[in-house]
Amino acid sequence: MADVTVRNLPELHSLLCERYYTWRRGAWVFRGHSNAGYQLIPSVGRLRHTSRSYDKVEASLLAMFRRGAVIHLATQPRNNWEWLALAQHHGLPTRLLDWTKNPLVALYFACRENKSQDAAIYFANSLPTADLSKNTDPFDVSEDKMWIPAHMTDRLAAQNGVFSIHANPMVPLTKGVFHRVIIKTENKREILSTLSRYGVHSGSLFPGLDGVSKYIEDEHFLLREIKDVETLKKVFKEELLRRKNLLG
Q1: pLDDT at 204 over 80
Q2: CB–CB of 191/9 below 8 Å?
Q3: What are phi and psi of 187, to 5 degrees?
Q4: Residue 183: CA count within 13 A, CB half-sphere
Q5: How far is Cα of residue 154 from the mean position of the Cα atoms in its chain?
Q6: Phi and psi of 194, rounded to 5°?
Q7: E strand or H helix at 55
Q8: Which of 101, 105, 187, 232 makes the best surface tag, with the fewest CB within 10 Å?
Q9: Which residues pair with 146 in a beta bridge?
Q10: Which DSSP letter does residue 115 get?
Q11: Which residues on adjacent β-strands are paired with residue 4?
Q12: 168-185 CB burial, b ≥16 within 10 A, e <16
């Protein structure tokens, strides 16, 4: 399917209802890219290194992470799959790629950075699901698959997260049915403002004090970027009403 451009949340909602929500629930997963030029390549596949083997590099990175992480964990991951998910969660380059079952979460990540670049949301389905009873080691998968983990972190749960795992992390993901929605750079700020009013923002997607701080910062700069006085009045009025409702 050719790329489709959406300018706001209502247009995305209409597209979802028309083409995607007619499928069984959970059939589609979504991923937001703040730059439409980015490919579906996991972070370890984008890593520059001097080794001849990405497998050795990734295994070494995970081994170092495990050694350093043990003293900080109240509960230990049960297998390499969970170790890989935990490492991905904390920023280690891995062969996992983050997806979400919630298109609004993907829209948020598409718009939050690279404000001067057009963004994209990838829609995917038809990837086989990893069976951990058969695929006991994530480094031994022979084809790209989708993995639905136990929500072992609050962030993964808040973002309704799932992963794709890549047999060759240097090659862009192409298997499955892929569609792409484009968001123009001039629409990013307004979309973020709308998402925030619906409760999709850094404070809700990144539970904890870091998320709270980022939410405050984001809201401050969103308001500062609004040049139109009437729009600014509308935003303040809606925020005052929201707070009044919260207080009862």
Answers
A1: yes
A2: yes
A3: -100, -5
A4: 33
A5: 14
A6: -65, -45
A7: helix 54-69
A8: 232
A9: 129, 164
A10: T
A11: 181
A12: bbeeebeebeebebbbeb
Give alpha helix (H) positions in 70-199.
80-89, 103-111, 154-158, 188-197
How far apart (Å, rounded) are the C-alpha atoms in residues 245 and 201?
19
Count the residues in the chain: 248
What's the pTM? 0.83
Q: In angstroms, rounded to a whole number, what is the distance separating the alpha carbons of residues 152 and 57? A: 25
Number of H helices, E strands in the chain: 9, 7
Mean per-residue pLDDT, 27-53: 86
Cα radius of gyration rounded to whole Å, the chain? 19
Nearest Cα neighbor of 9 from 17, 1, 240 is: 17
Per mean pLDDT, which range of 82-86, 154-158, 229-233 is the poorest?
229-233
Q: Which two tokens stand for residue 113?
A: 């950075």
H-run or E-run covering 241 = helix 229-247
Per 3-state DSSP, the chain is made up of helix, strand and coil in percentages (nearest 5) of: 45, 15, 40
Neighbours of 86 (CB within 10 A): 22
Please name the residue that has the structure tokens 């009862």: 248
Q: What are the angstrom distances between the C-alpha of 118 and each of 2, 11, 113, 159?
A: 16, 17, 10, 23
Which candidate, 160, 199, 178, 187, places its Cα nearest to that of 11? 187
HEC string of 174-238 equals: CCCEEEEEEECHHHHHHHHHHHHHCCCCHHHHCCCHHHHHHHHHHHHHHHHHCCCHHHHHHHHHH
Residue type, 62: L
